[in-house]
Amino acid sequence: MLKLYYIPNTCAFIPHVALEWSGLEYTAEEVGRDTIKSPEYLALNPQGQVPLLTDGNWALRQNVAIIDYINDLAPDKGIYGVTAQHDPKARALARQWLAFANSDLHMSFKPYFYAARMVDDEKAQENLKAYASSALKNLFSLVDNILAQQDYLTGDNITIADVYIFIEAHWTKRCNIDLSAYHNLSKFYQRVSADTGVSTVLKVQGII
Question: What positions does the domain GST N-terminal occupy (predicted)?
């Protein structure tokens, strides 16, 4: 059976939703930040991170790889969109936005989450956060512009890339980054939060 290891309100949220959408039998185990550094966990994931997916004795790490694997097991469940199974361009477009969320956006949060690890000086930490805030707003502006034309990143139907952008928009609240000027993004946030799989995982992980 598939098993997902996660820390709530992290990027492990995305494969958790993918599993909900997939209809596959799975379990999800919440782990603490101490657990992911334990010898037992490191034997499965030497990077000591989440998410981690196991399938029997086999372990897989890295978000995009995990999502791809879930999609391969349930190709007709619309993880990359309802037409992606038979439309390479639709699947590629969803993966383009997934890559954007996983790299450009996600990396831009690091100064907020790890500023103290990056520099010792408090003023330098604040400067890093200010730079990150500007970068994040620019990236979310790109998303907002796309959403002026359509409900979701790839068109009329939700994909797993939308879920990644959704949880990252949620992270801005804890970072005190004001995205209220992005009205299309705000409407998108509400649409995604209403998805059955998303709302289920929000509750399971205790995010709402």
Answer: 1-78
